[in-house]
Amino acid sequence: MIIVFKKGAKNEEIDNLIKRVEDLGLKPMVSKGTERTIVGVIGPEDVIRLHPLDVFPGVDKVMPVLAPYKLVSREFKQEDSIIKIRDGVEIGSNRIVIIAGPCSIETEEQLKGVAASVKDSGASILRGGAFKPRTSPYTFQGLGEEGLKILKSISEELGIPTATEVMDTRDVELIDRYADIFQIGARNMQNFNLLKEIGQTKKPVILKRGLSATIKELLMSAEYILSEGNFNVILCERGIRTFEDFTRNTLDVSAVPAIKMLSHLPVIVDPSHAAGKWGMVSPLSKAAVASGCDGLLIEVHSNPQEALSEGSQQLLPENFSELVEKLKKISAAIGRTI
Amino acid sequence: MIIVFKKGAKNEEIDNLIKRVEDLGLKPMVSKGTERTIVGVIGPEDVIRLHPLDVFPGVDKVMPVLAPYKLVSREFKQEDSIIKIRDGVEIGSNRIVIIAGPCSIETEEQLKGVAASVKDSGASILRGGAFKPRTSPYTFQGLGEEGLKILKSISEELGIPTATEVMDTRDVELIDRYADIFQIGARNMQNFNLLKEIGQTKKPVILKRGLSATIKELLMSAEYILSEGNFNVILCERGIRTFEDFTRNTLDVSAVPAIKMLSHLPVIVDPSHAAGKWGMVSPLSKAAVASGCDGLLIEVHSNPQEALSEGSQQLLPENFSELVEKLKKISAAIGRTI
Amino acid sequence: MIIVFKKGAKNEEIDNLIKRVEDLGLKPMVSKGTERTIVGVIGPEDVIRLHPLDVFPGVDKVMPVLAPYKLVSREFKQEDSIIKIRDGVEIGSNRIVIIAGPCSIETEEQLKGVAASVKDSGASILRGGAFKPRTSPYTFQGLGEEGLKILKSISEELGIPTATEVMDTRDVELIDRYADIFQIGARNMQNFNLLKEIGQTKKPVILKRGLSATIKELLMSAEYILSEGNFNVILCERGIRTFEDFTRNTLDVSAVPAIKMLSHLPVIVDPSHAAGKWGMVSPLSKAAVASGCDGLLIEVHSNPQEALSEGSQQLLPENFSELVEKLKKISAAIGRTI
Amino acid sequence: MIIVFKKGAKNEEIDNLIKRVEDLGLKPMVSKGTERTIVGVIGPEDVIRLHPLDVFPGVDKVMPVLAPYKLVSREFKQEDSIIKIRDGVEIGSNRIVIIAGPCSIETEEQLKGVAASVKDSGASILRGGAFKPRTSPYTFQGLGEEGLKILKSISEELGIPTATEVMDTRDVELIDRYADIFQIGARNMQNFNLLKEIGQTKKPVILKRGLSATIKELLMSAEYILSEGNFNVILCERGIRTFEDFTRNTLDVSAVPAIKMLSHLPVIVDPSHAAGKWGMVSPLSKAAVASGCDGLLIEVHSNPQEALSEGSQQLLPENFSELVEKLKKISAAIGRTI
């Protein structure tokens, strides 16, 4: 941590802060510049993070030097983490994993039709929501446990693992019984109690980046889960909010290489929510694969015109199938498989 | 709702969509322009909101005309809502209410000292957090129920009502027993299960705007609470995330008059979180009062240098006291009181 | 400037960079921490700014410590700058200055009517655009020199100084002959050649913050003008672009106290462009005055329904007059005059 | 254009506006809904754009239906535009074009070394700045005409066309003599006088998206150039400003397919400015190619540690060469060439 004093800070102000740093068991390194005094603090930065050194008289600003996360960092673990979902299905290896399915589970027929189709086309994991975070209380909120039962029954019938969203600490145990992967939505990325609760399971979890979260904050939210003992975290870029309004969100494709630099955790991309338009899912999926992501989360519905949620962004099964063929070629071009 | 067709959309595409609209029990009004066909849909827009008309062939875009919220809207209720906290304390009247106190409850002595001081200076409600949403799992997470007990004991001793944050559906009942006002933080603005749970109590709730929420989304979150039967909602502007980095967030002072136009609910401002710097709390508070807000939420700590959270943004009691005197003058200038 | 090395950076990498710093005539201060090595660089930071130290092997990041601007900074000049426009009219003193007038100069009658009215109501400076930056090439682009002639003639008739926008380096001399204050619009805040050209005159200039400029960048643009010798710069906050779409831009009222902390230059606020809605000009003006601004730039038109530009945001003269009365009360409440 | 009236708007208010619309020579289509009256306006929307209908009494809002641009739109011209630079070099065809070179022209040796190298590696166009838009007046501003001379001499020697930035209307003629392509930087995207001046030449121009410009605004700026008669416009996505601070800007890769939907003009991507870090140029370039862009603009410098500008983001020639090989594979995977 670097403490920058104001021009003209008094010696007693500087001495006062140095004493404080020493009292915390840390070692200050003082540099008196031509214009300002700067104090570098050597030692575990966490100790200082708790203490608001910027309110001391004479201090201009305090600049943290180290990243605030530990367990998720590339420095903590050099090699890429590979999250095993079940035999033959893992996320983070050279094989890019495709997770597909409808936004919401609506009926057994609907889910089964889509599931069989996306599995045939190359998806390894089935997605489908039973609890839906909707901005309006007057829209479809999901089938709840009934939806989870449908999900599990089709999962067993087709032999495909599943991912579904959890929104409430009270539902963690329930969902744990029915699905293979928890999904934490963008709006719950900083629902810290939910993160802790999921951290106490050992089940894989897809953690989506919040609508206006920085990459650092996404990593801090992952840190909550890891710090409780669950290292099976898959990060997901799904678009951030900007002033651009042609797309619903702006897919931050830079987040893929950025997360790869900063963390050992796998990162997947959700092009469906990013764009909010099915016609853009294909180019965004291609861009995501080319940028180095470990998987894609794609919404597919056999009849988007009748979908109970997010009809605008769901692909038809035949379009999904075509897309996977194109993605296989790009994967091969970068030395990976799908 | 307005449906705009693509230039060159086929007649059968237009007829197909018109039939769909009629099947939903709505009345289409077709305008064939020189360049495009436009269909206005008359009837309850909610019915259409559920159905993704933009995925129909030939459709260019679908533009909603009505606001998606009802109960919170100024059209639903013309006169301003006044939320009664207890005898003599209400939010939304001509009197601007000041809610003050430390970010976190740390000890009984700390809270009592601050509470007595801010009450003397003109605060009508005491704030203090027992459950703290922190971005890092390694920082102080609040005293939990122990903190709530301290809060209630001081509330009774000094005769001042209290507001405290609720973060988990499982804690609603607990907090209900100890505090007078629930506070839902920015990070939980779209924790829909929590909104519903709070909606089922009748207790006043301060709902903070999310870091990147639009005003419309804030109103939709409030709609969740009202739709469950709790009309005692106080909206709170606390700064939004932008690219500007001198302040921690950008206080959107326009949100105050905007909410007053769109809704009957009272709106307060939290200048402490918006700026993240105690030195800006004073000018932002003055701006907020001048813009027409119904209250302020201000963090005050008797020793910010030792605060366990948010030391940088908390005012000293003496600075708070001076600020209230200045705010009284501005309130008088706009025909209100504090 | 602080140079943070990667964990595990090699000694030769550190030595290599230290040598580079010394070669530049600067003094490195090395701190070897438990996790990382950090090098503080003592000396004029400008020298280093030119050199990309972050591309040296082993370097993690480079953090500047000093502000990149000098002449505009509060450290360079402690006392507030007061910009004299003409006898009896100055910006930056205790008296808040109101600049008002139509968005565009349309006809002599239109401008004269508005000018007489706003002068009567308390405006000290008349605004009116002759060169209009419009997003569409098919909309009214301003009257050009003809407009400037109208502006000057009314200025002389009514004895009121004027401000008008300059968009092109080729027009600087022309506008210099007709108006008392140059105005540089948000879209030209980083038109560096225009800034330099204006810097070579001695005439006061209102420099508007760019749509997505940081406060620091606004100050850097002002630095361009000052560095050419023109210290008569008035900064203007006019709303920044965010995801919020109820208002056209988001007025960043925090910019007023922030600029006051960082710079000695006066700062005014343009509530008309910020909101894009005339109904919000009044609350935003009040907030701006309460926050400590030195002036307001308000668009007034006697018939907004027929305005050739920005009709939606222009106040009627009678509404403007009422507003000024309210602003006088708020000014008095904070110890200033209008 | 759709005009939505307030709930409870009076009949005379509605009639008043209808009359106004008819006076403008347009045809109103009135829909009286259960809650609101809506008026669709048939006819050329431009006429109405000039007139602020939203200030009429009783009007809630006015929603434009048609895009404000014409000549740049896909509706105006169905097939992709291909911009010919010289024999054998064109942008917008199936072949993806790579434009490479240093940020600034520094010396003849420097430029020649880089130019020869990038040409060998597969670049078809040489970039290099002689006029540099820098945020600080104290940093290197470019060599000016001397730089242009170097650029032209190397262009002729190596037989490679060139692109260079134009910042000032006064320099258009000068640069026209030395370079093959004008480049308009992000900060000048709405320098409308410069756009018009370039529009009067017939030379190809790369128009970069502004830091916070929407896609629609980028197209409107292009419309300025086309409307003056120059159809040789190449659009360039170079990252937008968001709250994310790991990257300097956020590359909006969605802009590539979005522009392809909306316009016939070619679109290229500048990954160097988007990221601001050379280590991210490779993944972003791959993502851009996979998303369907027509070209890349990449900064290359043989000694970034000594670069006079933007050293952090420039690739070494050997890294550039490797990158092109990888991009060729991705191009092949999507059926294009480099």
Q: Assign the CATH architecture of the largest domain in chain A.
A: Alpha-Beta Barrel
Count of individual beta strands of chain A: 14
Uncertain stretches of chain A = none
Radius of gyration of chain A: 23 Å
Give the largest interface. A-B, 48 and 50 residues
**Sheet with most strands: strand arrangement of chain A:** 7-8-9-10-11-12-13-14
Helices and strands of chain A, in N-to-C order? EHEEHEEEEHEHEHEHEHEHEHHEH
Mean model confidence by pLDDT of chain A: 92
The total count of helices of chain A amounts to: 11
**Oligomeric state, counting identical vs distinct chains:** homotetramer
Please indicate the percent range of residues of chain A in DSSP E strands (runs of 2 or more): 15-25%
CATH superfamily of the largest domain in chain A: Aldolase class I
Largest sheet of chain A: 8 strands, parallel, barrel
Shape label of chain A: elongated
Structural class of chain A: alpha/beta
Folded structure, characterized:
The radius of gyration of chain A is 23 Å and the shape is elongated. The first copy, chain A, is α/β, with parallel strands linked by helices and 338 residues long. The longest helix of chain A is centred in the C-terminal third of the chain and has 17 residues. In chain A, helix 3 packs parallel to helix 4 and helix 6 packs across helix 7. Chain A is built from eleven helices and 14 strands. An eight-stranded parallel barrel of chain A has the order 7-8-9-10-11-12-13-14, surrounded by five helices. A four-stranded antiparallel sheet of chain A has the order 2-3-1-4, with helices on one face. In chain A, strands 5-6 form a two-stranded antiparallel ribbon. Chain A folds into two domains: 62 residues, 2-Layer Sandwich (Alpha-Beta Plaits); 251 residues, Aldolase class I (TIM Barrel, Alpha-Beta Barrel). The interface between A and B is large, with 48 and 50 residues.
